[in-house]
Design goal:
The protein is mainly beta. Strands 9-15-14-11-12 form a 5-stranded mixed β-sheet, with no helix packed on it. A 4-stranded antiparallel β-sheet has the order 8-7-10-13, with no helix packed on it.
Length: 201
């Protein structure tokens, strides 16, 4: 569906909404509301403020020579045990080549994903982490939630595929690190043990 702020993908089965913008590959993000039509061949026609757009969702131009879409991380939100948002970063601020540090008191990490696929087939995701979840986990939603992430550095890897078909995207790896609290560091534990032994002598 077209709107005045992006192209809306609506799943009639689970009522899930996903909105695509210019950063997802569209020529522009402002469309005339309800100005959309799909012909008998499945091609979509969308009316926007910059003219008419026509494309076939099942044969939309692939992003690389292997026929794979680039899965993207739209934003990352980190919450503490009180469900307070204590860290957030958006796509423009995410550098996949760098290590993103998250607060040591983090309890839940939400990673919002996007795959610029406009067809009618259901998109599934597979994800894993290098420490806490080393095996691939299937995820139907475009949001992955990690509860109580492990301390230290680890990689989060994600890829997408169409149900019953081959992979839709290349794997994307995002590296993050949750520093070890001082009270769990070796020097603090060693110091505490020495202090206890000194007091008991």
């Amino acid at each position: 569906m077209s709107s005045n702020n992006g192209l809306v993908k609506f799943n009639k089965t689970d009522h899930h909404l996903e909105i695509f913008y210019e950063e997802d590959g569209l020529p522009h993000s402002e469309f005339n509301q309800w100005a959309h039509f799909q012909d008998e061949q499945g091609q979509l026609y969308l009316g926007g403020v910059q003219g008419l757009i026509r494309f076939d969702p099942d044969t939309i131009k692939w992003k690389d020579n292997n026929g794979l879409f680039p899965i993207q991380i739209k934003d990352i939100k980190v919450y503490d045990r009180d469900n307070t948002l204590n860290f957030q970063t958006t796509r423009s601020a995410i550098d996949l080549a760098e290590i993103t540090s998250i607060p040591a008191n983090s309890h839940r990490v939400e990673i919002q994903l996007s795959v610029p696929y406009y067809g009618n087939k259901k998109v599934n995701r597979l994800w894993r982490t290098s420490i806490s979840h080393p095996e691939w986990i299937a995820e139907a939603s475009d949001k992955v939630v990690l509860y109580v992430p492990d301390f230290g550095q680890q990689d989060f890897e994600i890829k997408a595929y169409l149900a019953g078909q081959r992979h839709l995207s290349k794997s994307l790896t995002f590296r993050f690190c949750m520093p070890i609290p001082f009270y769990r560091s070796w020097w603090f534990i060693t110091s505490a043990v020495i202090a206890i032994l000194f007091l008991t002598v």
